[in-house]
């Protein structure tokens, strides 16, 4: 009888790995998961092989506490080598803030990067084309990469685009060595491309986007030296919903953005022209007519828009919900009246009343009385595309 009882006893140590993996995945807190791994070598191996995300305390990205390395050690190539050897099935890796990480620090991705889908190299100043070639060779499943301020050229971007065909979200902001040649390779090879951020890539004119996939819905090109032909190329895919072209005043003339309204950007919902100081009425009229789904339009500091432009917005932008007009010098009583009569779905008007010198107090009061459903706010808040990966970097 006693022997029978002993035979019925089962230790948790005798559970098969599948059961232990199941138990581990139900542990919510980082401390519980760490304690699990301290039980024995077998359980530590289960913890290691279950880990999917890794980032560090120095990260410039939004910290995801469960994915943080518990060590406060300096993150160098040797330490990263040890971690990648330990966590061999990562889907997400952020090295953002590892400003001294050299190219050879990424060598272990050749062995353990096959399942990696997201890689953040935000401000990894030591990463060059050679490091990107290691990523390209070791991470064929990559869908998201941030190369913000990396020393990458067109050669590295071309290598990456030829190997990582599943790329969807690419951040090239402040990569000053990237030009239209690299953008052309990216647009040609990565046909599932969804979002590109190339803020202050001063060597990019935009022409490399010609023939881009319709899957491209999000583009930030603020501070770039885009040309009218580049604007046409950017919208050529026909799928854009979010477009940021702010601060283009030094390189685009009054009619330089009319191509946006030529019929290729009919899906556009959010458009940012902030500080495009020379954009004139012809561009505004064309876009108001050609982009019927616009929900938010930032025209702050666009000084050359006159009554004709404001009237076109009022007449044609039937879905517009938010409009930014802060410090637009030529927004006058007649322009405000056109917005009052039109834009029936408008809910927020960003306008600095104290700096709207061409709008009379009477016209402003009439607007408020007639459109009590519209909030007039001075502090601007620009919408973010909900499916963009860049805003968690």
Describe the structure.
The structure is a single chain. The protein has 393 residues and is of the alpha/beta class. Helix content is 32%, strand content 10%. The protein has 14 helices and 13 strands. It has helices at residues 2-8, 17-25, 30-37, 41-50, 77-86, 109-112, 129-138, 154-163, 180-189, 228-234, 281-290, 307-316, 333-341, 361-370; strands at 53-54, 92-94, 118-120, 144-146, 169-171, 195-197, 218-220, 242-244, 270-272, 296-298, 322-324, 348-350, 375-377. Strands 1-2-3-4-5-6-7-8-9-10-11-12-13 form a 13-stranded parallel β-sheet, with no helix packed on it. Helix 6 (109-112) links the parallel strand 2 and strand 3 (118-120). The longest helix is centred in the N-terminal third of the chain and has 10 residues, at 41-50. The radius of gyration is 26 Å and the shape is elongated.
């Amino acid at each position: 009888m006693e022997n029978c009882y002993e035979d019925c006893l089962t230790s948790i140590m005798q559970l098969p790995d599948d059961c232990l993996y199941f138990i581990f995945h139900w542990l919510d807190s980082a401390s519980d998961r760490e304690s699990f791994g301290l039980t024995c070598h077998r359980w530590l191996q289960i913890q290691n092989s279950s880990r999917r995300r890794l980032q560090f305390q120095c990260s410039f990205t939004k910290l995801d506490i469960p994915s943080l390395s518990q060590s406060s050690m300096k993150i160098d190539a040797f330490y990263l080598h040890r971690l990648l050897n330990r966590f061999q099935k990562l889907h997400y890796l952020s090295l953002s803030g590892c400003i001294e990480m050299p190219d050879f620090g990424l060598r272990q991705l050749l062995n353990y990067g096959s399942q990696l889908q997201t890689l953040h190299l935000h401000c990894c100043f030591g990463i060059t084309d050679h490091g990107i070639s290691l990523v390209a060779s070791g991470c064929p499943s990559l869908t998201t990469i941030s190369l913000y301020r990396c020393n990458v050229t067109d050669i590295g971007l071309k290598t990456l685009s030829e190997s990582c065909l599943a790329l969807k979200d690419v951040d090239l902001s402040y990569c000053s060595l990237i030009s239209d040649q690299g953008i052309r390779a990216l647009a040609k090879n990565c046909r599932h491309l969804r979002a590109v951020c190339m803020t202050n890539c001063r060597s990019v004119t935009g022409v490399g986007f010609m023939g881009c996939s319709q899957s491209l819905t999000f583009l930030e090109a603020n501070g770039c030296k885009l040309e009218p032909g580049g604007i046409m190329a950017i919208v050529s895919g026909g799928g854009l919903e979010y477009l940021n072209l702010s601060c283009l005043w030094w390189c685009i003339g009054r009619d330089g953005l009319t191509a946006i309204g030529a019929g290729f950007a009919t899906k556009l919902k959010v458009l940012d022209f902030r500080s495009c100081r020379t954009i004139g009425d012809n561009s505004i009229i064309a876009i108001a007519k050609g982009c019927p789904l616009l929900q938010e339009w930032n025209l702050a500091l666009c000084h050359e828009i006159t009554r004709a432009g404001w009237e076109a917005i009022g007449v044609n932008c039937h879905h517009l919900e938010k409009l930014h007009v802060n410090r637009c010098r030529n927004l006058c009583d007649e322009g405000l009246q056109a917005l009052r009569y039109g834009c029936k779905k408008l809910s927020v008007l960003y306008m600095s009343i104290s700096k709207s010198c061409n709008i009379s107090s009477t016209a402003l009061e009439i607007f408020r009385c007639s459109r009590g459903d519209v909030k007039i706010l001075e502090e601007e808040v620009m919408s973010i595309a909900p499916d963009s990966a860049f805003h968690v970097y």
